[in-house]
Amino acid sequence: MAADGGRRLRIALIASSYAPHIGGVEEHVAQVSRALRSQGHEVEVWSVDRGRRPAASALETPPVRYLPTPLPARTAAALLRYALAGPAAWRRWRAAAREFRPDALVVQCFGPNGVYALRLHRATGIPLMVVSHGETLGDDNGAFARSRLLRDSLRAALAASSAHAAPSRYVLDDLTARFGAGEGTIIPNGVGRMPSFDAPAREQDLLVAVGRLGRMKGFDLLIDAFAGVEHGRLEIVGDGPEREALTQQISALGLGDRVRLLGERDAAGVAERIAAATAVVVPSRSESFGIVALEAWRGGAPLVMTSRGGAAEFIRDGEDGLLVDPEDASALTEALRRMLSDAPLRDQLAAAGLERVKAFSWPRVALLYDMVLRAIVGRRR
Questions:
Q1: How many helices (H) and strands (E) would you count in the chain?
Q2: What is the rounded CA–CA span in Å between residue 335 and residue 324?
Q3: Does 3.40.50.2000 match the CATH number of domain 10-190+361-380?
Q4: Which residues face 141 on adjacent strands?
Q5: What confidence score (pLDDT) does residue 280 get?
């Protein structure tokens, strides 16, 4: 029985990616799986097999299955590869369903994982839930723009699903407008306890940004805006395909002594730089939610947040963060100046953030999943 006395559910969280890869989806799945297990449910993570595994000591519960997800493509060679690999991959998925016997299939960030989950739903009748993390809006690789199979499969999965969810109305509206989804549920992201690290002193005039170095994260916009700030330093934590372009941009603007690309850091390393920051900046061109905002609040750092996307739904401009359009270079520059010069404003935003972040715990997020999943499993009976 679950902790509330209800029936214990067997839940397969079917992720587009998982450890050792680092990112918002991976963190969401890891934390939700732990919280659901703590509530009494049995959970497995089924992740797309990307050829890498974490060290055995680093992979905590729940159990994880890395499953192959080959898809057909247009070239003859690609079709041949799929003809050879597809049947074996499908057998692995069917075996996973037989062995775990899930009550619900929960797709996390639709991609090849969603294509196979939809097929499994059709073959078994196991209820399907689709959780979008903004992959249709913030995809640097253009997977949905390029792949008709992904677009058609997402439409079909939304039509076949018993429920769908997203972290913001921004994402739900896109699923409705472009993929024909009905009414969905907002399930926000959460943030856990502060990881352990040697706490640094809050540094003077230090702006910190965190995220994958991809176009959608808008770090090029931040660097351009920062060039108009007369003093201060900027650190960008993360790695990705735009690293070389950002390095060249920093050099061209003569900012080599003021802007540093720190590379990828683990959770403790990210928290340590946030704890050192005068302010945290999230300059994304599109942001489905913005876990970094919660990490900034948790770390007591004042926040400058993009107004483009879902963050504007939960951040109160001027109260617990400054909302700014990152493509308005002058507005972003002015927001950075304010953060570096206005100590009372920083204190107000940081205090409000520390209070607001209490509402975004992973157990609360898991309770929302619990309610939705109990409803869809109950309808099957």
A1: 13, 13
A2: 7
A3: yes
A4: none
A5: 98
Please state the domain extents for the chain. 10-190+361-380, 206-359
Q: Are strands 10-15 and 42-48 parallel, antiparallel or unpaired?
A: parallel
Segment 190-212, tens digit of pLDDT: 998 888 777 788 888 999 999 99
Distance of CA 292 to the CA centre of its chain: 10
In 3-state terms, what secondary structure has residue 26? helix
Q: Per CATH, the architecture of 206-359 is what?
A: 3-Layer(aba) Sandwich (3.40)
CB atoms within 10 A of CB 327: 15
Please state the φ and ψ torsions of residue 206, each to the nearest 5 degrees: -120, 120
Q: What is the pLDDT of residue 199?
A: 76
For CA atoms 345, 348, 350, 353, the dihedral sign is negative
Largest CA distance in the chain: 65
Q: How far is CA 168 from the centre of its chain?
A: 12
Instruction: Name residues whose C-beta falls within 8 Å of residue 56's C-beta, 6 or more positions apart in sequence.
Output: none
Segments in the chain below pLDDT 70: 1-5, 55-61, 78, 139-142, 380-381
40, 5 Cβ separation under 8 angstroms: no
The contacts of residue 317 (CB under 8 Å, 6+ apart) are 307, 323
Give per-residue pLDDT as tens, 316-328. 999 999 999 999 9
What's residue 57's pLDDT?
44
